[in-house]
Amino acid sequence: MIENKNLKYFSLKEINCKIHGRTDESQSPLPLFWNGSAVEVNVTGTELWIEVEVDFDIHEPWVGCSLNGALVSRQMLMAGRYKICLFRNMSVDSVKNVRFFRELQAMSEDNGNHLLVHGFYSDGSFLPVPDRTYKLEFVGDSITSGEGTYGAKQEQDWIPMFMSFSRNYAVMVSEALDADCRLISQGGWGILCSWDNKPYENIPSCYEKICGLLKGETNEKLGALKPYDFSSWQPDAVIVNLGTNDAGAFNQPAWRNPITGETFKQHLLEDGSYDPADLKRLEQAVIDFLALIRRNNPNAFIVWAYGMAGYDLTLPIAEAVNEYRRQSKDRKTFFLQLPDTTDETVGSRSHPGPKSHEQSAKILAAFLKSLGFVKK
Amino acid sequence: MIENKNLKYFSLKEINCKIHGRTDESQSPLPLFWNGSAVEVNVTGTELWIEVEVDFDIHEPWVGCSLNGALVSRQMLMAGRYKICLFRNMSVDSVKNVRFFRELQAMSEDNGNHLLVHGFYSDGSFLPVPDRTYKLEFVGDSITSGEGTYGAKQEQDWIPMFMSFSRNYAVMVSEALDADCRLISQGGWGILCSWDNKPYENIPSCYEKICGLLKGETNEKLGALKPYDFSSWQPDAVIVNLGTNDAGAFNQPAWRNPITGETFKQHLLEDGSYDPADLKRLEQAVIDFLALIRRNNPNAFIVWAYGMAGYDLTLPIAEAVNEYRRQSKDRKTFFLQLPDTTDETVGSRSHPGPKSHEQSAKILAAFLKSLGFVKK
Amino acid sequence: MIENKNLKYFSLKEINCKIHGRTDESQSPLPLFWNGSAVEVNVTGTELWIEVEVDFDIHEPWVGCSLNGALVSRQMLMAGRYKICLFRNMSVDSVKNVRFFRELQAMSEDNGNHLLVHGFYSDGSFLPVPDRTYKLEFVGDSITSGEGTYGAKQEQDWIPMFMSFSRNYAVMVSEALDADCRLISQGGWGILCSWDNKPYENIPSCYEKICGLLKGETNEKLGALKPYDFSSWQPDAVIVNLGTNDAGAFNQPAWRNPITGETFKQHLLEDGSYDPADLKRLEQAVIDFLALIRRNNPNAFIVWAYGMAGYDLTLPIAEAVNEYRRQSKDRKTFFLQLPDTTDETVGSRSHPGPKSHEQSAKILAAFLKSLGFVKK
Amino acid sequence: MIENKNLKYFSLKEINCKIHGRTDESQSPLPLFWNGSAVEVNVTGTELWIEVEVDFDIHEPWVGCSLNGALVSRQMLMAGRYKICLFRNMSVDSVKNVRFFRELQAMSEDNGNHLLVHGFYSDGSFLPVPDRTYKLEFVGDSITSGEGTYGAKQEQDWIPMFMSFSRNYAVMVSEALDADCRLISQGGWGILCSWDNKPYENIPSCYEKICGLLKGETNEKLGALKPYDFSSWQPDAVIVNLGTNDAGAFNQPAWRNPITGETFKQHLLEDGSYDPADLKRLEQAVIDFLALIRRNNPNAFIVWAYGMAGYDLTLPIAEAVNEYRRQSKDRKTFFLQLPDTTDETVGSRSHPGPKSHEQSAKILAAFLKSLGFVKK
Prior knowledge:
Shape of chain A: globular
Radius of gyration of chain A: 21 Å
Oligomer: homotetramer
Number of strands of chain A: 18
Largest interface: A-D, 37 and 38 residues
Order of helices and strands of chain A: EEEEEEEEEEEEHEHEHEEHEHEH
Distance between the termini of chain A: 44 Å
Helix content of chain A: 10-25%
Strand content of chain A: 25-35%
Largest sheet of chain A: 6 strands, antiparallel
């Protein structure tokens, strides 16, 4: 291997580098908490490396890299501080757009999971990366974590390999509208509670922090639990894709807090229908979450998009969205049903596959266009 | 032209002939009132003609013919009593499945419009036509009348040529599930009122008659206004695709009854939102219609499918469906949003084109499959 | 039926009317000999009828009609002289482009088959129909006659219903390149002989006449056997799609002239390969036909496109095309293989279906683009 | 990172491991010379690592990994001997099929390029990997090296990143037919000479060695230059996709041997046509190569597939194939034209993109099916 003697190290702070995803930008190295969190550069030179620092207890991070908008690599990262080559032997003068992104969702179940970016090595120079026309925030569960977008249909193991940003409807919608995007999602979590009735595993509870579903001292040091500065990045639309796990909770046993003994459960009546009281608190959670999003994003369109993994809560969610609109007079909030996944569109782990993401991305992008979003 | 000397006349009554669509089967000749109304035969012999009787004041009927399930012809019919050849010179012994169907919706604006079937001429014999696995009833407006499924994008004339059964989501869903289907639809009509606020142009008001939107002495003689005998054909699912015109009414001037001076209008508030009182009566109309459908179809799934021509009333309709479920405990009633038509999927007259019908048919068929419908 | 009192009769001669397809334009009424033969008008007014005269012994003609470029009707025609309504009740001032075209190939097996156009009835006026950017001539067999493009897969009867221009690769290529087109084709015919070894059923023998494969006094009077005036319509490209039947002939018994006792046959050797002498005369027929086409179309690109119904003669035809190029120095002649039809793309009568035609049309249009054809 | 203490090392020799691609299987570590060269295992356990040894002067190897048939990772490899984790935390008992494959072609321009496999680390056990139904050998140039299948359309740098096995028509055909495959390809090389007239850069000259286009002591030690034992893996079909570079050579300046001063060039005549003498030696090279393939693969179908990057040599190649068939009486040799790449199907570096590979793979797989290949 003939070494390139001209490589120089550049810390993120000293170069033009666009940061994607909610993070604490004052940190060095920079944490990439969410799937879709990324560093993006426009760089000349023949060669580019990124220096990362990785750790985890159980679930390793996966990353992808796109070059001039095309996905070229995707890989698992092991623990350690090391360099990864992103390109080599390219024309020295041309400007290469490179995006190095996290494929794996933030991992609430592995507080040791960290993906930090120190800087780059290159023999080129770093030019500004302009913002795209729009900003979109996607808030969701395993669907938005891209679970099922990689791997064979038969797979049932819950492992990072099968989650992604690269085959995610969020990135497809963003490409269709020339938008930057940020994702906040967690597999198994809901609006009110998790698929197995854990009442604290809901996205609203962590929405106002940078990455509030993480715990532990290291994550705290990395800024995950800091309040998120909404003014720093005001989205043109917030897409909420939640409800699938709340539907599941009705069919799961109660959760019991192992310490306090307290329990939580969404109940079915004897006839198999949802207990009205439990449905009520779920609908209230929808209304409260919409109000919370609105408070933090005063000008954004808010679209509650639901259905990719089952239609069970279509009516209660739609009704709650409607009730929120009535109460708030907030006419920039919408409900959009997305097509359920079928045998033809399913991916691994019985989750929406790439074809399902493509189908929903088309419908969602068309809806946003009808609200005035125009790809230039 | 060498004449076939072996043709014999068969009136409908004396042969195996399956009748599609709501009609008065005691009539002779048999009226085909709705788009999708049809006669279907399994016939041997080399040649088949159908004898029809046609009239209209302004809007001529169009018909299509499928042979062994494949559409082979589509044409305009002029007034008169005459024979149309459906096939010639085919193998004498093979059984040919032939369906001769009306492409044009029932025409509430042309009481002179009639398409009657007297019988067939053939040199073969007529074998029984078995029922398909399921029965589906589709209730709708111009979308279900197939408006926009034929013709160039630029067309704006409101003429029968551009409406169809042959490129209609209703037939696509039925093919996908091996179902017979009946359609009840009228362009411009709504749940509560028409696109231009006519309060009597709503589908519920004519749902319990054979073809209650027709008027005039001839139609009455033909049985159009007779009560429809729901027991004769109980659908496995009723799909309601209404709401588009009710949404439009809010943006149209008031309708004034030219005789009584009485007026009707769905209002917008000054801020552009729907007047809550008007919305309320619309939602009540949804609830009442669901109850009416349920009363007449006690075992059917009912699916309110909405969105192919705009999402404006998604939330009020969803809420009304939910309210109906709550009040009635009717758990076999559902709401399904269908994707709005886009520049890519639009047809003539700014209506959903064939691609839009295909897209929605896939989603609707998948939904019915999830309810247990299985194509054998 | 309320009659339109404003209709006037216009003979073809007195109006702007574009004639498609080889015919004797001095005739009145005008014969439409080939599939794709058509009259096309740009007309204002609310209503348009065409007056035709039709006859046949056995095989009835089928026609189609497109309005503003969209196919709206397709039907069988019976014998007689009568009017067919093409549109009604359209906006009086708008210019409607209407093409009334023959779906059925010229019928060498039915000398009584005629489709003649007398004129139009309309309440509008007829504006000029401009030429398209290019002119394309398609020369072929049952594939170019569109056999298999309509009807169910199971169909095996050889009847006009299953042939078409409307779903033919020829029209698809022409639309893709903004071209006018003329078709010369006959099912069963070949370069040298027919599928069953009839030595006179080859397209080259009739290429220089208007419709040289027809016989009988009436056809002669209609001008079918007149020399074709190539100077009147010089194509930019001639696409030859022949060879399928010549391949079949090797596997069929010898043909015997019932009168003279003379026989003809393309032979297989005992090992199943083509007899070299028979192959030689076939290759010579290819060379001779190319020379004949070139003589009559000095500036056209010539593309021998082969393969949609089997690849058997790919090598001999390619070699003959190459030999012709060598001998003639004619560098504007090409060979293009088209994809064979598969289970997924097959239509009725085991012939290429619409999907096969679409696939080949794409490849052929792309090839013509590579030669410099540009859709404006 | 919590370490898995149960991992054990397994050298390739001691386990069930299927080796893909021509190589010297007696080597340890095992060289993966060609794109598509791979090791494939069926393994239980929760975790699997592969130990590789990598080196190169300039052009780094890229690899991919599929799990249960689905591509899950693709990455660049740097020099060194190290382990790569292929999966972690999977169900211990299930059998995982893992294929670790080389994405990069053999690199005749970088004799330092080596990718060697030492063995695996796992906590599971290795079960036999059965052969697939068929064996296919693909012989080609940059198209078969997958050049252009990754990267943005605008890319023009010639780097390994843009070549692949994973998006290659060869793997698509093999999946469609349930076949194992071996690839022999080199960008820029031809049948007779390279794109720039280098007379020794032709695939036939290295066809009988394991990887005869490599040079240098290390490659020799690794067995690259050993005769290839054809009896060890007799393909059911050999697909030759060569000719694109031979066409290019006619338009390039002469090559001059820097040492001997000897030159080589394929000439155009003044009128722009191919010099017949040069064409002759090219056609002879086709004939000789077919004879060479046949000698080594007595029972295989041989398909010369050409056209994905231009049709220039369609006729000379077809004629040569035909001449070879005549001379040899070899009736299991065929010519198949594949569709040229268009603006819609092009990939990076103006080469066929994934859509072009898919299109050609479908046509090629259908052709092989017509020869009797049946996916079980």
